[in-house]
Amino acid sequence: MKVMNAKNEWDSEIVLEKKVINNKELLKGLNKAILNWYWFLLSSIVCIALAFFYLRYTVPQYKVHAKLLVSDDKKGGGMMSSTALVELSGLMGATSSVDNEVEILKTADLMREMVLTEKAFITFYIKGAVHDIPTYKTPYNIELISSPDSVIETRRFSISEKAAGLLELTDTDTLFKVKAGEPFYIHNVGNVQISKILDNEEQLPASYSFSITPIADVIDSYTGALNVEITNKNVSTIDLTFVSSIQKQGEQYLRTFIDKYVERNLHDKNVIADSTLSFINSRLKRITNELAGVEDKISGYKQSTKLSDISEQSRILLETSASNTKSLAEVEVQLAAIESMAAYLKDDKNPRVVPSSIIPQDVAFNSLISRYNELVLQRERLLLANTENNPLVENINLQISGVRTDMVTNLESTKRNLQLLKANQLNTSNNITNQIQQVPSIERGYIDLARLQQIKQAQYIFLQEKWEETAISRTANVSNSKVIDTPKSEKYPFSPKRKLIYFMALFIGVLIPAAVLYVKEMFSFRISDIEELKNISNVPILGFISHSNEDGHVVINKSSRSPIAEQFRALRTNLEFSLNGGKKILFTSSMSGEGKSYVALNLAVSLALLQKKVLLMELDLRKPSITSKLGLPAGKGFSHYIVRPDMILEEIIMPSQAHEDVDLIQAGAIPPNPAELLLSERTNELMKILEDKYDFILIDAPPVGMVTDAQILSRYSDTCLYIIRQNYTFKEQLSIPKDLVQSGKIGNIQFIVNDVKAPGGFYSNYGYGYGYGYGNYGDINNKKKFLPFFKR
What are the residue boundaries of the Polysaccharide chain length determinant N-terminal domain, all occurrences included (predicted)? Predict the structure, then answer.
């Protein structure tokens, strides 16, 4: 368990550390954004201004909506359902489908009809200062006299009235004048006529332009602007959406489009109805001729056979035969019922109720049945409480037996009468059959002709009825769709979306500086913050010196309480622990201009404030700068002392004038062989003498990345302070101190980060984060730099 707990604690520490790193990265990004807030503000203002001008000069687009209800039997929404014309639907054509109607509405031919009706291939514009605005109402009417298909290319002209009835048309390379109301020719367009349609009293803009576009292009454009869809599969409705830059014009175009669709639908129905009427007329003509021919045959047949009314005679015989057959059937039914009843009554072992109304016309028999049934029911009630041997039961049995005997006798009498009636009816039926068989063959021929006449007459009547129904439906034809929501434009344009564009402009305005900062960070070759410094090199950081705008190169004195003075004091404290009793401090850097002399000079003054004797040695023999920074005249210095054995130490030591306890040894004359002078035995002796004489010796050496002087001087130092300047030192140059430490050429190297910009290129928890400045090492043209956003 202890091992597991230890592991969990270790994981928790790892997770916590990752969170801290992520927070630092976030703070780093926020810090950079805050430092460059003005660029974010400027970029946002510019992008919002561009969005404003885009919205100001972009033609808004509106959506026009309409809804159709379509007759669709599959969905039960047909307008012809439950009407008198449903029977004709099969005759008039196939039932419509919503999906089929959607495809019809999408056809280019239907859109072409709308374009031609509304002359949508001619577009008017109001002339504007920046761009032209489409308009719906103009004081001019333009007619394309030629065929619309004659327009080959889009031509656009500005139109203005120069005099009464005289119009001037101009385009990019053409100017000509035409008279209102008279046709004229335009190349690749055809013959055109312009006329005035509004009075001058109406307040309309004075400058207009118009364009004439090939009709195929217009059809493609408006077909793309029209959206036809079924939003609800459960109902037979179609939603139409048309996009237009002018609300009224879009409503009118969509209204005309729907009208053309309805007209085409009615036209199709009327064509079917006309075709049906034509077919019925041809059939009626043929059937009429055939019926007249049959009637002529019947008339001739009667005249040749001298028949008056054989059909009536035959009808009477047939009716008599049918009546006799019906009576015979009734007698046979009654005989069968009597025989069944007789068999029923002969079973006297278990008396049962007899069905009534067997012979409805025999009243006496029916009364016997009622009496018999009453006795049987009375017997059954007595048996519920008595036995068969009970006198009452036996008495009832005797009565039942007597009534049964009477009933059987009555049935036999009725049966004999019915048998006699049956024989008579059979005899009559035979006589009628013989009479029918005796009808001459002439009558049979007449019947065949009459039957043919009836068939033709029925066909004639059917076709006449259908002709009337079709003619009525032709006049009452309606479209299988109707408008349930007329075209209406939305109040506000759907494009451009103002809120979305402003939001995107603000987003882009923030994104652009952020992207530039990110790209700059990616392609930055200079040290910009402490994290980069730590990731590249493991050399310890002794302190931070922030940027300062103070005049002069010495920024610290006895009474100074400025933030930068406190930073040098903090650096002095850290240095005492780093020296661990030593006193010789070497200052170097990667290249010129990183602030070695500036840091060395101010650190010397800071140490002198502790009432310590401090010597500042200007050993950058190639490019000395401390003397000039202090404003001192150049005199004898280190190079003179080394090459002249007769010169004593007091000749080269001079007051620095920065502080009474800070002395200075100048570089002297620039020698041709600085490295050899530094390696001389006299230099070693000088260092030993100075070590006994001063509490701290600060050696300003050349940049170690350029020459080897600093490596030579490191043998005389107890610690090496390596100056890193923010946004100046190259990242690749940090490999120099790393190699020096690994190879042992210079020991005890520590970084001092100089020129830290506040607040926070290096985080606020390092140093004080206040601004300050210094002169550039060897920078002759030290000009003020602008636009810090574009420099590192």
Answer: 36-115
